[in-house]
Design a protein that fits this description.
The chain is α+β, with helices and mostly antiparallel strands. It has a single domain, classed as 2-Layer Sandwich (Pseudouridine synthase), CATH 3.30.2350. The protein has four helices and eleven strands. A hairpin with a 4-residue loop joins strand 6 and strand 7. The longest helix has 12 residues. It is globular. The protein starts with 9 loop residues before the first strand and ends with a helix.
């Protein structure tokens, strides 16, 4: 299911930004798999749409895990990239995620605080309740949006951005994300996706200073569709 520019879902574009809805399975930028990254697809789209000759500048502002879908920002100018990177560091870009998890949490809403430690060997993070050597503090807030028969739809706001943070923290409290074998769900989704979706992003435009608020439609899939 390699992306190409014809099935690229553009949510917002101007001279400085490109915001797209990443499909699960797409990689944000090139990695050791050698698969075509989303950044290349977006470059092709810009090149063709605006008849650009030569190289197209495109800055990767942030990433989403490969099996995750949802809203992702690219910068079309170095000025926008520099400012967005600073906004990200200063936590001035608000991201809201949706996750479909196993079971129904007892608490309708909660704040989870863990210390996460990444193991580069298996590209997996573990959650601890106390700080340990090499761990980083991770904080998220969730609330239950909807209860389905075997699952719950949670809305999640991240206070920190750690490696596999949502996947690790929810799994630790007994609510692994649907399809996420790596973090304890009992079977994978057929397409290799997990039911984690970057639903919304809000920030001040780095150049025009207007408020940008973008919502990414969920994947067209049975369990997601049951939530809408």
């Amino acid at each position: 299911m390699h992306s190409n520019k014809d099935n690229l879902q553009v949510l917002f574009e101007d001279n400085h930004l490109m915001i797209v809805n990443k499909r699960s399975g797409d990689i944000t930028q090139g990695d050791k798999t050698g698969d075509k990254p989303l950044s290349d697809v977006v470059k092709e789209y810009i090149k063709e749409k605006y008849n650009k000759t030569g190289n197209v500048f495109l800055g990767v502002v942030h990433r989403l895990d490969r099996p995750t879908s949802g809203v992702i920002i690219f910068a079309r100018t170095s000025k926008a990239l520099e400012r967005l990177n600073k906004m990200l560091r200063d936590k001035n870009i608000n991201k809201t995620y949706w996750a479909i998890v196993k079971n129904n949490p007892k608490k309708e809403k909660d704040t989870l605080i863990h210390y996460l430690k990444k193991n580069p060997k298996n590209n997996k993070s573990s959650a601890f309740h106390k700080e340990i050597s090499g761990s980083k503090k991770a904080i998220l807030h969730y609330h239950v949006l909807q209860k389905l028969d075997n699952y719950s739809l949670l809305e999640i706001d991240l206070e920190t951005g750690r490696h596999h943070q949502i996947r690790t923290q929810l799994s630790n409290i007994g609510f692994p994300i649907k399809g996420d074998l790596k973090y304890g769900f009992n079977r994978s989704n057929k397409d290799g996706s997990i039911h984690l979706h970057a639903r919304k992003i809000q920030f001040t435009h780095p150049v025009s200073k207007e408020n940008i608020s973008i919502v990414a439609p969920t994947p067209n899939e049975a369990v997601w569709n049951a939530c809408n």
